[in-house]
Amino acid sequence: MLQFDADRDAMLARAHGAAIETVVAIGSGTGPGSLDCAIRLAKRERAGEPRIYATVGIHPHEAKLATDADFDELSTLARNPKVIAWGEIGLDYFYDHSPREVQRAVFLKQLELARPARLPVVIHCRPSQDSQNAWDECVGILAEQWAASGLGGVLHCFTGMMEHARQALDLGFMISFAGNVTFPRAQNIRDAARELPLDRILIETDSPFLAPVPHRGKRNEPAFVKEVARQIGELRGMAAEEVAFQTSQNFYRFFSLPPASNAGMPIPSPSRGAEG
Length: 276
Fold this sequence. Notes:
Blueprint: H1 8-17, E1 20-25, H2 37-42, E2 51-56, H3 68-77, E3 83-92, H4 100-117, E4 121-126, H5 133-145, E5 153-155, H6 162-170, E6 173-177, H7 187-195, E7 201-203, H8 225-236, H9 240-255, E8 265-267
Parallel strand pairs: 1-2, 1-8, 2-3, 3-4, 4-5, 5-6, 6-7
């Protein structure tokens, strides 16, 4: 919560200046002990800043730290009216900060808790290098354990293959693209951004990570999401403004939220820690 306090006001002012009207702060924070971080940010209601909504959840990195008390706290936090989704949750086999069997157990537990909370889930999935193992397993778990809920969710910062995206669409998920869609080697991501139905995609930052071209090397922030819209527009032969408008409408429709205005660009699912 304190990591970016020094320029948080200026960052949100820049977002507002870039026509960002709504931000979703991911509430996994640094794990247990900070699970309410996004809710605290979502309490901000200041002129000249975007609206902020929140999620709650335990990221796979911190799965090994999760206790029954933390799950109880999440169930309580999920009732806050500012909370619109449960996440980021899922599997990360790239870093393996938590044992894989623990990641799977905590993932399943949170799906179990999100169902009575009637919240869609925000999925973090990163496979081990040169493998799609985590994506295969993650989509399989969602098909077996989540599809029947009818709540769907968001594949945050999508990096999988086209078959994973299509399977997720069949499960009622939205596919969200972040700054890495602008990276030269991310052809699989660009292929998905070009070919998936426009009414099923979202755009995001994954702040403070994955700053898009031409901002690579900088700390990412919501205002930079315009570069994601620009890249997807180039891929689809559309103006960036048209991509921004359509993905905004997708966001409001999926989360059953009123638009802040008739224009502008919400930021679905930025990374934990960026605004939280």
